[in-house]
Amino acid sequence: MKPNPKNDYIQLCQRMKRPKNIDFGREYDKLLKHKLIKNIEINGNGILVSTRKITIKYKRRAYALGEFEILLEIDLDFNKVTFKNLTNPIIREDKEESKRIYHHPHIRDYFAYDENADEYDYDGQDACFGNIKDLIDELLDKEDIPGLIYLCLNFLQSYQGHDYTDNEGDDYEAYKEITYWPLVKKPKIKKRKR
Question: pTM for this one?
Answer without folding.
Answer: 0.83
